[in-house]
What does this fold into?
Amino acid sequence: MSRPSTTTAVGSLTLRPLDPLKDAVLLHGWLTHPKSAFWMMRDARLVDVERAYMEVAADEHQQAHLGLHDGVPAFLMERYDPAHRELVGLYEAEPGDVGMHFLVAPTDRPVHGFTRAVITTVMTALFADPATRRVVVEPDVANTAVHALNAAVGFVPEREIQKPEKKALLSFCTREQFEQAVSA
It folds into this structure.
């Protein structure tokens, strides 16, 4: 996956590969914050975060990237192959499907439009790979804020699914749907 730099109204957004050990303290603070409840890691210890992201780094079917805002860590993006992770047996994966999660770092000083700029940057990075035909997400059905963000960049909900850890809203976004949504 290419690592684009996007200049937005909120500043420059870039992605770099996550370093599971060097970035663990930062991620631990984000993932255990009350605003990150949907990540279900509120009680995680630092070693749990290190272990989780070491597993991601060692897995050929998933990758994690740290997002930078004007050079400062500000968000997390996870990319996965839904034919092998997260959604196995819950839907019929198609060639070119790519799964995605993203987390904006909790802050006491939110910037208007920042989260929308982040998801747009994440989607641009995923679609920079010509093999990506469709992005798949499965947020918690109760996470209405992320459903609205997903819709804003072209995701269309298909159905609710039951994952082991949550009831999720399975949604898809093709390259064409994304391009149409962000050009509107």
